Amino acid sequence: KRVWQWKEKYGGTITNQIKRLGASCDWSREHFTLDEQLSQAVIEAFIRLHEKGLIYQGSYMVNWSPSLQTAVSDLEVEYSEESGHLYYIKYRVAGRSDFLTVATTRPETLFGDVALAV
């Protein structure tokens, strides 16, 4: 119910942005993921794939692969213990002269940071 409320309020935002950019899509074929017809097709596809043994349901953590640019499951991750380095990044506190220090093993994430919540 809450997803449908969200869609009603914000659903057209991305579509309108794409239209303003001049995309020439066939908008008559646009669907929302949870539209009844589309949702039923997805469920049917998953059932068929499961029955054929091509997919399974399991409890596992999903990790993001920066090199593959996709999600990979724990089953696809090869674990190895490696020595690492802890980096300390100082973020200036807005409107003040002091800093908030955050420790990370992945300093490359600094460039994606836009805010810290404490």
UniProtKB/TrEMBL annotation:
Coiled coil: none
CC annotations in GO: cytosol
InterPro entries per record: aa-tRNA-synth_Ia, Rossmann-like_a/b/a_fold, Val/Leu/Ile-tRNA-synth_edit, Valyl-tRNA_ligase
Top-rank EC class of the record's enzyme: ligase
Any one GO MF annotation of this record: aminoacyl-tRNA deacylase activity
Domain Aminoacyl-tRNA synthetase class Ia as annotated: residue spans: 2-82
GO BP, one annotated term: valyl-tRNA aminoacylation
EC number, as in UniProt: 6.1.1.9
Alphabetically ordered keywords of this record: Aminoacyl-tRNA synthetase, ATP-binding, Ligase, Nucleotide-binding, Protein biosynthesis
Record-given protein name: valine--tRNA ligase
Lineage: Eukaryota, Viridiplantae, Streptophyta, Embryophyta, Tracheophyta
